[in-house]
Amino acid sequence: MVRLITHNLLACHVKGCTSNNFPLQFRDVQIELREAEFNPDFLRGFMPKLEWKALVDASRQLGDTSLPPEVPEMLDDDFLKNLHHVLLEIHVEEGVMTCPNCRHEYPILNGIPNMLLAEHEIG
């Protein structure tokens, strides 16, 4: 499933595409919201692994504006609930992720991203 928790780790790996290849940009997406169990301790522990600006930009591409541009100093319950929603409850079912550098497209079908590359694209 393409959720923003996963998307925040994905970069383009086409041969020669080594700069400005993250984050992948969403286009023509269909999303589905699915409830997930709220676990504030998991979220606090995962925070240092997040590329914040990429997460905020991706969530806005998907129509969610609940995250602040900068990580707040106080990780209160309201913030953590918004983060939980963005990371774990927004599922991209269909669409395309495009590399901002080489413009390679990674299709998403039935919630699964196709990250496989053709032989000539592998570096």
Topology diagram in text:
Layout: E1 2-3, H1 4-7, E2 25-33, H2 40-46, H3 52-61, H4 77-89, E3 90-98, E4 105-109, E5 112-113
Antiparallel strand pairs: 1-3, 2-3, 3-4, 4-5
Protein name: Trm112p-domain-containing protein
Organism: Lyophyllum shimeji
Pfam families: Trm112p (PF03966)
Overall description:
By secondary structure, this protein is of the alpha+beta class. It has 4 helices and 5 strands; from the N terminus they run E-H-E-H-H-H-E-E-E. The chain has helices at residues 4-7, 40-46, 52-61, 77-89; strands at residues 2-3, 25-33, 90-98, 105-109, 112-113. Strands 1, 2, 3, 4 and 5 form a 5-stranded antiparallel β-sheet that branches. A hairpin with a 6-residue loop joins strand 3 (90-98) and strand 4. The radius of gyration is 15 Å and the shape is globular.
Give me the CATH architecture, please: Single Sheet
Largest sheet: 5 strands, antiparallel
Specify the overall morphology.
globular
How many strands appear in the DSSP assignment? 5
Pfam family, one: Trm112p
GO molecular function: protein heterodimerization activity
InterPro entries: Trm112, Trm112-like
Subunit structure: Interacts with TRM9.
